[in-house]
Task: structure prediction
Amino acid sequence: MKQTADAVVIRFMEEQDLEQAAQLERLCFSQPWSLKLLQDSFFGPWDTLFVAGLQGRVCGYADLRILAGEGEIQRIAVHPDFRRLGIGSKLMEAMDVFSREKKTGATTLEVRAGNTGAIGLYKSYGFVEEGLRKGYYRNPVEDAVIMWKRRP
Result:
């Protein structure tokens, strides 16, 4: 039976989710964050982490940093087996609602230039391309597109 995003629950990350988030990092990124870096974000004062849970399993997670009235999406990851089900959209919605509640003036992110699926997702949430960092990513080398969503 094919999974749907309807059964996915978005919630704040709990400490016991950190290991599964670290596993997602290794599956989703060529330069994954370590468990230690995830713990630093989780216990730090600026980051709020969200998880997408399905049947007791973390199938996605996101990290939103809010500092000095601005947000920055640090990470968003969805397990490869659960992509294209709307889970990324649900995580984006949770971060957008949280950002509005915290009255951020703007939110930014960076994304690999070749990640057209993610760029499309971000554009659907009102982000616009405002800059490019040449050769920013490694493994493989790729430019980073800088995107912003500015609130009136």
The helical segments are 18-28, 35-43, 87-101, 116-124. DSSP finds four helices and seven strands in the chain.
